[in-house]
Amino acid sequence: xxxxxxxRERKRRxxxxxxxARAALSAxxxxxxxxxxxxxxxxxxxxxxxKTILLFSAFGTELDLSFFARQAERDGKTLLYPRCAxxxxxxxxxxxxxxxxxxxxxxxxxxxxxxxxxxxxxxxxLCPCAAFxxxxxxxxxxxxxxxxxxxRCPQAKKILTAFEAQRLPAVCTESCDVPMDAVITEKRSxxxxx
Length: 194
Hints:
This protein is about 30% helix and about 25% strand. The chain has about 190 residues and is an alpha/beta fold. The protein has a single domain, classed as 3-Layer(aba) Sandwich (Rossmann fold), CATH 3.40.50. The strands form 3 sheets. An 8-stranded mixed sheet has the order 6-3-2-1-7-10-11-12. A hairpin with a 5-residue loop joins β8 (about 130) and β9 (about 140). α2 (about 25-45) runs parallel beside α4 (about 65-75).
């Protein structure tokens, strides 16, 4: 097995471990923990000063940011949601009325009535993950959408939101993996100097 295959295999095993831990959390726990994380996010200076925020619509057992979204919208923030595009590109869209489910089963804004935003215009990005570690390293779902998108957002603060159960001692990383500026869980808020 060569180095690249070894890294992919380690990432696959870590992803399986963390996703199983997340799936084992009860629906009640996930709802309460999601609300706790949303409250922490709303109190952050990065949220207060952001005008444009890219967040995600919860899929499966992911942390639910809908409480955060409702409050941020009331506070006049422009909310953007990701859409997976051809060539494994991530688009940042301000949704219209219509949403669609993509090939992965994730809810996305429909292109027909959404407005596309340039990555340079985003102030804050709330990232999902499969797993993360003590140093703010993020392990995604494996397709690399966020890893290709995040470097294009030079002014954006990048905050990972997850359940504490998804924390691993050290996730396997490569040069293309973008470390986070902060990790917010129901138990901890960790900030990193980058």
